[in-house]
């Protein structure tokens, strides 16, 4: 291994890793906030809300993330003057904000479906019991349904975090120097193929750390569902 | 409005034919990758059940790697790394021949690897879901091993694995878009070219997304039909 190369590009790749982690955590957080009303709309009795949320989810899950990034990043350029008038151009001009926006909207669609499935998996008797105890609708949702739904949502949430980490490499296509972007830069300067293997190893380590900690979390949160002998 | 429609027309002035040609490449890439992924996935699933521990270790490492590394990075490694490896191989025999790994082939291999890593888990679960009594019963009836696989194991395997595999196939359809970064003339790449020439990104990228969504809708219909067919032996389910 070439030592000079790593002195020069090693720190860049580590910075890239931090950028990747920032990108993913910010998008996941914003996506989680957006996903709640979407999941509610998916489960609502209102036809319009159901239809609109279904279309939202279908669009973001049905087309490639890369195409969505291009649509917002390049498409906003076409709307430059209206966006400037609205005082929003600074936001769309910046690839970083565009990517955060698209990733958040995209993961919100997936998270909404996870949430919807999880809420549906809570037994109907729980809702009826809460009602017979005289609990209000909001209290029932946040104190009875939601905590139980989160347990069955945990595993799919973990998968979504991992998919986001892998998917975030796409940001490098629109000039973001995340881990993938930094590796591309190092490769184009040095033609040393090893940088890609190091990048792959770094992604792999992050994904494995998340997978293992998720497994531990899952074991802890579902301990009341296992027989005593296994606890 | 008519101006925008003109941009989409078929022929020299419009981009309709370029987009359709790109869509054709996208579909070909998907259809070429799917069998590779399925066969590899089946082989990896069998390796995970093997009694040979190095084989099991390899299969598990394979899955961990291809499920943990971004598809885009896998694609780059196969494309550039494959090029270098091939060139070195050819270099043993000749100094003048320059090999070129096509983006299509690199995409096929990279996406096939990723697909097979996920598919092997689905197929493994499906294999485990088939009761061992089935194979024993087939043996008691005097069926040969190959016949058992063909007539007893496989039809049930398809039934158990189909929902998971069709999900993966839908993901694969979208992942073909990644190969556009290697300048393969598939749908998204041709859309970018059209945007470069017309300066109409919103129109063209929306249409590209529309193409992918239509493809997903159509595939979902096919999958629903296939699931009904695979459940045909079940009471109260499907046909």
Verbal overview:
Chain A contains ten helices and no strands. By secondary structure, chain A is mainly alpha-helical. In chain A, helix 2 packs across helix 6 and helix 7 runs antiparallel to helix 8. Chain B contains nine helices and no strands. Helices cover 77% and strands 0% of the residues of chain B. Chain B has a single domain, classed as MetI-like fold (Orthogonal Bundle). The model of chain B has no long low-confidence stretch (mean pLDDT 91). With 239 residues, chain B is mostly helical. At the A-B interface, helix 2, helix 3, helix 8, helix 9 and helix 10 of A face helix 3, helix 4, helix 8 and helix 9 of B.
How many domains make up the 3D coordinates of chain B? Answer: 1
Q: What letter string, H or E per element, gives the SSE order of chain A?
A: HHHHHHHHHH
Radius of gyration of chain A: 21 Å
The percent range for strand residues of chain B is under 5%
The CATH architecture of chain A: Orthogonal Bundle
Rg calc of chain B: 22 Å
Q: Provide the helix percentage of chain B.
A: over 70%
Q: What is the straight-line distance between the termini of chain B?
A: 47 Å
| Beta strand count of chain A | 0
Q: Based on DSSP secondary structure assignment, what is the total number of beta strands of chain B?
A: 0
Q: Based on the structure given, which CATH architecture of chain B is correct?
A: Orthogonal Bundle
> Order of helices and strands of chain B, N to C?
HHHHHHHHH
How does the overall form of chain A come out from the CA principal axes? flat
Largest sheet of chain B: none
Query: Assembly type of the shown chains?
Result: heterodimer
Computed structural class of chain A:
mainly alpha
Q: Briefly note the structural class of the backbone of chain B.
A: mainly alpha
CATH superfamily of chain A: MetI-like
**In the CATH hierarchy, what is the class of chain B?**
Mainly Alpha
Mean pLDDT of chain B: 91
């Amino acid at each position: 291994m070439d030592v000079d190369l790593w002195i020069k590009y090693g720190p860049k790749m580590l910075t890239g890793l931090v950028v990747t982690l920032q990108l993913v955590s910010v998008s996941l957080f914003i996506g989680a906030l957006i996903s709640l009303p979407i999941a509610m709309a998916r489960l609502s009795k209102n036809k319009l809300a159901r239809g609109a949320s279904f279309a939202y989810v279908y669009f973001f899950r049905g087309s490639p993330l890369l195409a969505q990034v291009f649509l917002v990043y390049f498409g906003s350029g076409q709307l430059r003057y209206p966006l400037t008038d609205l005082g929003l151009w600074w936001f769309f001009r910046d690839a970083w904000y565009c990517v955060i926006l698209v990733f958040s909207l995209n993961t919100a669609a997936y998270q909404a479906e996870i949430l919807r499935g999880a809420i549906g998996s809570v037994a109907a008797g729980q809702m009826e019991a809460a009602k017979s105890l005289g609990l209000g609708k909001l209290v029932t949702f946040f104190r009875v349904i939601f905590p139980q739904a989160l347990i069955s949502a945990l595993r799919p949430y973990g998968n979504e975090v991992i998919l986001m980490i892998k998917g975030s490499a796409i940001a490098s296509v629109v000039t973001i120097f995340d881990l993938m972007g930094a590796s591309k830069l190092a490769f184009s300067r040095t033609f040393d193929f090893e940088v890609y293997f190091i990048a792959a190893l770094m992604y792999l380590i992050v994904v494995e750390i998340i997978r293992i900690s998720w497994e531990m979390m899952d074991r802890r949160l579902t301990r009341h569902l296992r027989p005593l002998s296994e606890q | 409005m008519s101006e925008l429609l003109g941009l989409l027309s078929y022929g020299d002035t419009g981009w309709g034919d370029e987009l359709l040609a790109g869509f054709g490449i996208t579909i070909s890439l998907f259809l070429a990758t799917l069998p590779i992924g399925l066969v590899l996935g089946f082989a990896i699933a069998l390796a995970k059940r093997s009694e040979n521990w190095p084989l099991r270790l390899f299969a598990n490492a394979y899955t961990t790697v291809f499920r943990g590394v971004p598809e885009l990075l896998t694609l780059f490694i196969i494309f550039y790394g494959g090029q270098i490896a091939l060139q070195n191989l050819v270099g043993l025999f000749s100094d003048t021949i320059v090999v070129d790994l096509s983006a299509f082939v690199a995409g096929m291999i990279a996406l096939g690897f990723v697909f097979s890593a996920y598919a092997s888990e689905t197929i493994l679960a499906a294999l485990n879901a088939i009761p061992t009594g089935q194979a024993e019963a087939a043996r008691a009836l005097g069926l040969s091993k190959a016949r058992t696989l063909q007539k007893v194991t496989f039809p049930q395997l398809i039934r158990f694995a189909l929902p998971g595999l069709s999900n993966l196939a839908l993901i694969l359809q979208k992942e073909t878009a990644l190969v556009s970064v290697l300048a393969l003339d598939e749908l998204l790449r041709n859309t970018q070219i059209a945007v470069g020439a017309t300066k109409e990104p919103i129109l063209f990228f929306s249409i590209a997304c529309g193409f992918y969504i239509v493809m997903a809708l159509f595939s979902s219909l096919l999958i629903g039909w296939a699931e009904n067919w695979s459940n045909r032996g079940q009471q109260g389910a499907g046909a």
